[in-house]
Amino acid sequence: MNTSRRQFLALSSLGAAAGLPGSVLRAASAEATPAAGANAAKAVLRLSCQESVAPGKSLTEKLDFLEANGFEAIEPGGRDLIKRVEEFQKALQGRKIKISAVCAGFQGVLISEQEEERKKAIDTMKDILTAAGALGSVGMIIVPAFNNQTKLGHQEARELLVRLLPDLGAHAQQAGTRILLEPLNRGECHFLRQVADGAAICRDVNHPGIALMGDFWHMTWEETSDYAAFVAAGKYLQHVHCASRKDRKMPGEDAGDNYVDGMKGLKYIGYQNFISLECGCKGDRMKAIPAAVRLLREQWELA
Ligand code: MG
Does residue 7 belong to any structural domain of this protein? Predict the structure, then answer.
């Protein structure tokens, strides 16, 4: 029996017990599995690497290295990206490699209790979104507040975030890109730790310019199942970060580094975007990066 059939039957039996009519159950079943499982597009493994992680003295050297090692994208930081749009456009001309996500780089705090901090965040995020859109980026990664950056309680902060995101989503959509919420581990951010919680925020905002990412390294500490986390994220998941599971170095540099469970989830939801290296390196990047690529490709096949 395929997965969606199993889910439908599970929902049906729950519904029968609750006395729900069949039409409600069919709607619930369809909603619970948007473009997932047997109906999902075939997922693809597309690798990306943060600009600061790639070896090379110049952007050209970094792009040469990444292309030679099978990467399809580079992830720049958002800081001052507005001044670098032309540099990236020129460097990418005639290459297959693209921009994946753009990593943060804004000022201020989006869910601060202080209006000035919120305004600084919104204004600088909009500049970065404009640059990200001009570069064809999947989205701009944001953290609503790191630990101790807001005095608001959890519920108040969440309500504020859901109120503020549609305006940023509209700006992102107009620029041709998205906001990507990034859940972090509790040491960095209590406010948003789990991928499914980020997905619930995306659902509540309900704007095409607002999406989500997952970071395998943060997920090590916060998720009970990488598979379940990505399945819960579903259509909202538009970017993934990857590092070794324990020390946040190159995938494969910690004993037992394993991404298969999460990759099964990515396959289930028909994930089409990038897995991007955001990590340090214990060894020589020139050797450790190609080894990480081999490991990720092997584990993708196993998933
Ligand atoms: Mg990350």
Answer: no
CA–centroid distance, 127 to ligand 1, in Å, is 21
Q: Please state, in angstroms and rounded to a whole number, the distance separating the CA atoms of residues 138 and 91.
A: 18
- Kindly state whether residue 231 falls inside one of the protein's structural domains: yes
What is the value of pTM for the model shown?
0.88
In the three-class reduction of DSSP (H, G, I as helix; E, B as strand; rest coil), residue 235 is classed as helix
- 241 alpha carbon – ligand 1 mean position (Å): 5
Condensed to tens digits (0 to 9), the pLDDT of residues 128-169 reads 999 999 999 999 999 999 999 999 999 999 999 999 999 999
* Tokens found for residue 206: 């309900």
Residue numbers of the domain that contains 233 = 42-302
Residue 206 CA to ligand 1 center (angstroms) comes to 23
Mean pLDDT of 244-273: 98
Residue 29: per-residue pLDDT: 42
In a domain, 282, yes or no: yes
**Residue 195 in domain:** yes
Q: How many CB atoms lie within 10 A of CB 46?
A: 18
**Mean pLDDT computed over 92-121:** 98
CA of 215 to the centre of ligand 1 (A): 5
Q: What's 189's domain CATH number? A: 3.20.20.150
In the chain, the number of structural domains is: 1
* Whether the Cβ atoms of residue 273 and residue 45 lie closer than 8 Å to each other: no
